[in-house]
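Appendix B, example 12.
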Amino acid sequence: MSITTTINSVRSGGRAARSEVRSTSRLKKRTLALTAVVFGLCATACGSDIADDPAAAPTTIAAGSVNSTSATTAASADPVSTAGTPIKITVGDQTFTAILNDSAVAQDFIATLPVTLPWFRNAGIEYITELSEPMTETGPFYTDVEAGDIVYYNPFDSITIIYAPTSSVPTLTKMGEITSDLSAFENLPDNVDMTIEVST
């Protein structure tokens, strides 16, 4: 075999190898393109199924919807204003109405009614009476008090009727709220006896 023949044979083999490489590369590209098309079709189909099936919606959307509904329900379900034990508070010829909630301390107090207790005005915003013995205190404690709230203060075993806006301390338990005109408390004496009984 001549040198020329050998060179031509090598060149021919090189071209064949390069051709095989190019063919393999094209095959890989076609495979990747086909995979991408198939993946896209699957994604479209899956997206259509989720849109058609509410149960298959993303959990984050469902959770947001549930939280929104819960918040609305909680806001509309005020146990103090819509349920509880109605009571009447009498001071001389003045009568106030209120609702006591279902907390343990409120239920303890209801069990003592009817009762007449001495109350004194404090800081021009509230009336306080101190009890002879403590009542059941299981909380929850709260600090966002509002005018009209009836609260139990366990360090002094006292009940407070708040009739004007005020701040709070972290050991108050809400027992209920006054449902009649709060401004009438401003005209009462600083020291009064209040008779409290369950409304019939």
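The longest strand covers residues 115-122. Helices lie at 3-52, 59-76, 79-82, 104-110.
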